[in-house]
Amino acid sequence: MNFPDLVPALKKSMSDLRGRLVANQSLAELTWFRVGGPAQALFMPQDEADLSHFLENLPAEIAVAVVGLGSNLIVRDGGVPGVVVRLGRGFGEITIEGRSVRAGAAVPDVKAARAAQQAGIAGLSFFRGIPGGIGGAVRMNGGAYGRETKDALVEARAVDRHGRAHVLRNADLGYSYRHCGVPADFIFTQALFAGERGDPAIIAAEMDKITESREATQPIKSRTGGSTFKNPPGQKAWQLIDAAGCRGLRLGDAQVSDMHCNFLINLGGATAADIETLGETVRRRVKEHSGVALEWEIERLGVAK
Q1: DSSP 221
Q2: Which of 30, 103, 124, 214 could pair with 116 as two cysteines, CB 3.0-4.6 Å apart?
Q3: Does the pTM of the predicted model rise above 0.85?
Q4: Is there a catalytic annotation at residue 297?
Q5: Dihedral, 261, 70, 89, 220 alpha carbons, nearest 10
Q6: Which of 148, 155, 276, 297 is catalytic?
Q7: Are the C-beta atoms of residues 264 and 254 closer than 8 Å to each other?
């Protein structure tokens, strides 16, 4: 499926644009599930100023969506109308500021954790357990192994739909479990995290334990999207799924992981519709069994084919 080409008109109206703008670009290879249709237009800005310029001049009627490293995302098979923004190299810098780490939104969480470890900054090892990038962690208050992004974030930079830059303190983000209260059209570009002085060797050992735990309990070498559903208050999603008899449940090449049943996996030939339908089947069975309505943690983007 191809959308009408927006790119020529957008380029004509933005002569100073420096980033890459591509029409009908497949998004499947940008997601960990490896499924989904194209973006009507995919924009990869060179830096924050380029992103601001683009958004300031983008017609208001054109929808904007953001994708990061694609670890927590289902792109539907019909693709995504409007513009999809993906931050790349211009947002991949890490700097150490005393006992704090400043990281661009495109920095993988594990890379930020490693930079903190090498600098002897403790308190950020939990990022080793989050599959994705800093922008996604800030947007969804990502967390793992007892800590969340809100526990370490000092401030974040973002650009709104009108191209205006903002610096937001932790208290401005309205954080709760897997939720950020900042408007959905804000695109995070950078974040500053505070830690404390630590021994690099001890921090490295802590990160190794997280790695070992993930490898032993999660299907991290499969085509997956990480945790599928949020944990209901006082409960574990995987336990509810298991109790409802959904471990190993399969729809085509989409399967509930046998290793960790809050993970969906693509065995190779699944479509986005297969994966999403399987997830909804799990939600229905859990609701019927326990009365609990599971809430999606994985983002779903675009239109059905």
Answers
A1: T
A2: 124
A3: yes
A4: yes
A5: 20
A6: 297
A7: yes
Dist. CA 105–CA 115, nearest whole Å = 15
Q: What are 104-152's pLDDT values in tens digits?
A: 999 999 999 999 999 999 999 999 999 899 999 999 999 988 899 999 9
CA distance 279 to 255: 9
Sheet holding 20-26, edge to edge: 20-26, 38-44, 80-86, 64-67
- Coil, helix or strand at residue 299: strand
Q: Is residue 227 annotated as a catalytic residue, yes or no?
A: yes
Tens-place pLDDT, residues 169-216: 999 999 999 999 999 999 999 999 999 999 999 999 999 999 999 888
Q: If you compute the radius of gyration of the chain from its CA atoms, what whole number of angstroms results?
A: 20
Residues 6+ apart with CB under 8 A from 243: 289, 290
Q: Tokens 């995070």 identify what position?
A: 188
Backbone phi and psi for residue 249, each to the nearest 5 degrees, phi listed first = -55, 140
Catalytic residue among 178, 247, 284, 300: 178
